[in-house]
Amino acid sequence: MTVRSAATNRWQQAWYPVAFLKDLDPQRPNPFTLMGQDLVLWFDRNQNAWSALADVCPHRLVPLSDGRINAAGELECPYHGWSFDGQGLCSAIPQASSGSSISQRSHCQRYATASAQGLLFVFSGDPEQASHQPLPLVPELDEPGWVVQDTFRDLPMDALTLLENVLDVSHVPFTHHATVGRRENAGPVELELSSFGPEGFTGLWQEGPRRGKLGSQFTTYAAPSLMWHDLSAKGFARILTVVYATPIRAGECRLIARFPFQFASPWPARLLRLRPQWLQHLGNHVVLEDDQLFLHWQERVVERRGGRHDGLRNYHLPTRADRYVRALHDWVNRYGGEPFAGEPLPARLSRSELMERFDAHTRHCRSCSTAYRRLQRGQPICWGVVAAALISASWLGPSAGGWAALVLALAAAGAGLRFRHWLQGLRQGSGQAPRNR
Questions:
Q1: pLDDT in tens, 15-66
Q2: How far, rounded to the nearest angstrom, does the alpha carbon of residue 307 sit from its chain's CA centroid?
Q3: Of 108, 134, 140, nearest to 121 (Cα)?
Q4: What is the pLDDT of residues 217-260, one digit of tens each?
Q5: Rounded to the nearest 10 degrees, how much is the dihedral formed by the CA atoms of 191, 196, 200, 203?
Q6: Spatial distance between the Cα atoms of 381 and 294, rounded to a whole number of angstroms
């Protein structure tokens, strides 16, 4: 099989979503690593648009993401105050004499950016080529009537490993038993490919999930990093499962997942909107961690056996349930290559390290980071109420007021314990998959 050269590697000349716009702070620089390149994302209010520059000052090579957006609305280096506009052009060197010219070497590398469907996209290659590549969007989401639940997480696995996993529909009843699957729903999965080429492939699962109870499922892989499943559950909703696998570096990617629904009745949408997003994200973490442990370890076995480009030889894929995984590897070998071909994986992480949630998600998520701060403030208040209520109950004795104080103490203690549980969930997963409990 042919491994694509760097000159034809599709991953190096592609648009990728790097964040939901709602989670980016327009008042400060935001760091991100894309395809092994450290970037700084910041809102250029002079152009009313997000900018992406290489996260390194050309002066003394420090990260610009540790700087600030100054009064002129430009990105200012934290070390010596050099300033850069949204195009990466150096506009000010405080140490230079008045009237001095600014050379080409003083400028920063710029990356093309675009905003669409609530996401910020960055082009990984030459910005002059960005306009020749379409954004990887889901056309259906431009239609009205969708209720969309979004999440993201930085995962300790390669983008291709994530894509293999989400394209593999047959693992759901077993891996995700007791979360979003049931073992009793497992059975033959007869996948069909309806198209295949340089832009990816499409497929059909005629029976669909849960032994046909939800209807046929259509799958699209829009190379190199986007895939979605589409099914219509008669009388309930049309449901999409959208996954972007944005490559960060070898062995690490950012999952951006979207779960759009078009409900037949207005009530499910109203109920979904009542649930805070951060609580939804806690549930999403549990599902992601169902297979995160063994996928991270699986990668090291693949590496020892020759790498991802030998997947079709190393894997045993005897059934039609593996057809999408086979098609993904066919695309890698024929058209796209790997995002980090030949680069070694980092050392294997421990179970505890793999369950880390705060740096992988919480601190980057506006909803979860806000909830985390509020819960931190609320927990000591709960224990303070408990102490005050118990003192009051002791003072009032066996009276109506005393009993009311005891009830208040119990309620505050329950809230304090629940806050502690949520705080732990925003920091770390348990590592115990629900299927094994």
A1: 999 999 999 999 999 999 999 999 999 999 999 999 999 999 999 999 999 9
A2: 24
A3: 134
A4: 999 999 999 999 999 999 999 999 999 999 999 999 999 999 99
A5: -20
A6: 40
